[in-house]
Each structure stands twice: as C-alpha cells, then as structure tokens.
Specification:
Elements: H1 2-7, H2 48-61, E1 65-69, H3 72-80, E2 88-92, H4 97-110, E3 113-117, H5 122-128, E4 133-138, H6 152-160, E5 164-168, H7 173-176, H8 179-182, E6 186-189, E7 204-208, H9 211-224, H10 230-240, H11 243-261, E8 267-271, E9 278-283, H12 289-294, E10 300-301, E11 311-313, H13 325-331, E12 337-341, H14 347-359
Parallel strand pairs: 2-3, 2-4, 4-5, 5-6, 10-11
Antiparallel strand pairs: 1-7, 6-7, 8-9, 9-12, 11-12
Helix pairs in contact: 2-10, 3-4
Length: 367
C-alpha cells in the first residue's frame, strides 16, 4: 500500500481534473468580506501548494500535522523553540555536525542545555535524566558513524519521565520508518535529502502526532516565518512520488558496496547499518582521502546526500567542520573517514569508480 500511496501522493482534486497540484505563487488572498476568509490570507501563514504537501506528508507519517520549512536546519530550529532556558535535552552522541553547531548556539545564547549520551547504553541514558530534562533527540542511524539505535525502549522511558521524543528520520524516511506510529512525539527530516531526492530543493519538514504540539508549532512556524516556498513544496511532492523506487535502488547498491569494501585492503572498516543508501568508510592509513577524492570519475565529491547521484563527503572538513577537534576525536571523525550517499546508478559503475580511485590514492604510488 505504501508504494501506491507514494506514487499517488497529493493528487489534485480541483475542478480542472489536473493530476499535478498547481503552484500557487500568490502571497496574498482576497477576503470575501470583513471577518470572512477563504482559509488563505497570507502565504507565510498558509499556502495552498504548501498545504497540499504538508497534508499529504502528515498522512504518510501517520501524524496530525506537518510543517514544511525552508531547510532541514530551520526544522530543527523550529523544534528548539519549544524549549526555554534551563531545559535540558539528551542528544545522540554521534550526530550531524550542523545540528551540533545549532545546539551549541542555543546553549550559549539561550541557556538550553544539550547533553550528549550513548543511546546504545540504556542505563547511561536513564541515569542522565534529571528534573530539567525535557526531551530526547535521537538519530536512529547516526551521522556519520551509521550507528543504528533500537529506539523502542526510549519511547517507553520518555513516557515514564514525561519527556518528548524527537526523531531525526532523514536517513530512513517515512518509506522505511514511521516513528510516530512507534511512539515518537516529533519527527523531522532534512527534506533536501531523500524526500526531494534530486539535489534541487532546500527544505525541511516537522511532523507531530499530538494536536497540542501541532498548535504550538503552527504558531511558531508562522511567527518565525521560515516556511517553504510554493515551488519548493511542489518539488517535494514530486520527489515523494518516486521515493520508494529511489530508496530501494540506493539501498540495494549500498548493500553490495558495503560487502565489497569489507574485503578491500584499502578499507579498515565499513560503517553500515544494513539499511538505507548511507554508509561510511574508514580508510587504511596507507591511503589518502584527498587523492581518493581527486580521482573519482563517476561518484561526486559533494556535501549532501539522498539524491540520485552517488555523493562522497569528507566530514572532517565539511559536515563537521565547526565541531571542535576534541569533539571530533571523541567521535572518530578524522582524516580517514568518508561518508557515502549511494545513488541509483548501475552498481558496477559505482564499485569500479571507487576501486580505481582507491588504487590511485595509496601513499607512495607514482601515477
């Protein structure tokens, strides 16, 4: 059913019979009379194209409301505004560098505390909860170490202590996981990634299952104004229609590549959860990452993920560049770690490109 739901997501039901939803560019809407509204007044508050995406996405996530934002980071910022000075949030120790940077800013500027814990260690998490703890923020597959967490016990723990559970589901998407059904309170995505799927839209989305939370976030969404444009909302709708096809293909390619790389002398360790198209590789110290990246022909050295093309990212100077070196060291983010977002190309082309680049990146080899 989910494949059909994605293929037919957000079908238009207007009087024209159009299959694709129209893009409403208007920023203002005429009032029939004083005190009356069509339901649309000003596009920051509500826009028909954005509403079509948000309503379809909330249904896909099994939530009551979704909020489309202007980037993945603005989605996280929207959630941060639920908390006040003195509140504490327990956070996945290994996580996206941009999230770490934003949390550090909120800690310094607004006194919201973020405590990094190992969600593989239930006792550590439980013992870290204090009277100030308000939420758990979890990447179920961490970025960039690809550590997969069994989140279910933490839904129960959160309810026991009256905490919110926030899941960054960017890597898994609603196709592979619907955390709101399992017990999460808030799910967010950098929709720039797998949701859009084509490296041509910057977006985020937050979904909740509680009406009270929906009202709070709806007010903040409108007040802050980091809402998604109509055209970008349309692009997300279009991207969702092929999400299942793209995810299946990238996961298939990633599984084959993880197996192949585990048998290469050039690779010390393959970091892969077995799900999604995301994996990381730790190079043998006889190989240089810069030379490897220079010799790629098909795979692309770029800082993003979830598109149709295979991207390779160097977290040390890209996604985690603003993380202090001491924090990077704790997480194993060094000059030998590469993060791969496997695309939907022919698998053989991806494998051959990576192997030839590795062969040319061995130190001491004269080309």
């Amino acid at each position: 059913m989910k494949n059909t739901e994605l293929a037919q997501i957000a079908l238009s039901h207007d009087h024209t019979g159009a299959i694709a939803n129209p893009i409403y560019l208007s920023t203002a809407y005429q009032h029939p009379q004083l005190g009356a509204s069509t339901g649309y007044d000003y596009t920051r508050t509500k826009n028909p194209t954005r509403s079509a995406f948000e309503e379809a996405f909330a249904k896909l996530e099994r939530g009551v409301a979704s909020f489309a934002t202007s980037s993945g980071m603005s989605a996280i910022q929207l959630i941060c505004n639920l908390f006040k000075s003195g509140d504490e949030i327990l956070v996945s120790f290994d996580l996206y560098g941009g999230t770490f940077r934003l949390f550090d800013f909120y800690e310094q500027q607004y006194g919201i505390h973020f405590k990094y814990v190992d969600f593989l260690n239930y006792e550590e998490v439980e013992q870290s909860i204090t009277e100030h703890t308000k939420a758990l923020f979890i990447e179920p597959i961490s970025n960039p170490q690809m550590i997969e967490v069994d989140v279910d016990p933490f839904y129960i723990l959160a309810k026991q202590f009256n905490l919110l559970t926030v899941i960054d589901n960017t890597f898994l998407t609603p196709y592979l996981s619907t955390p709101l059904e399992d017990g999460a309170d808030i799910v967010l995505h950098s929709a720039t990634k797998y949701i859009g799927g084509h490296n041509d839209v910057l977006a985020g989305v937050v979904t909740v299952k509680d009406q009270h939370l929906a009202e709070q976030l709806g007010q903040l969404h409108n007040m802050i104004g980091a809402t998604l444009s109509p055209f970008d909302s349309y692009l997300l709708q279009r991207g969702l229609k092929t999400l299942h096809l793209r995810m299946d293909r990238s996961e298939y390619n990633a599984k084959l590549l993880a197996e192949r790389c585990s048998n290469l002398d050039a690779i010390d360790k393959v970091l892969y959860s077995g799900r999604t198209g995301m994996l990381s590789l730790r190079l043998n110290k006889d190989y240089k990452a810069d030379k490897f990246l220079e010799h790629l022909n098909i795979c692309i050295f770029a800082e993003s993920l979830g598109g149709t093309e295979t991207f390779i990212t160097f977290p040390y100077t890209q996604t985690h560049v603003d993380m202090p070196d001491t924090e990077k060291d704790k997480r194993g983010i060094d000059e030998y770690l590469l993060r791969l977002s496997i695309g939907i190309e022919n698998y053989e082309d991806i494998e051959n490109d990576i192997i030839q680049a590795l062969e040319k990146s061995k130190q001491g080899v004269i080309l």
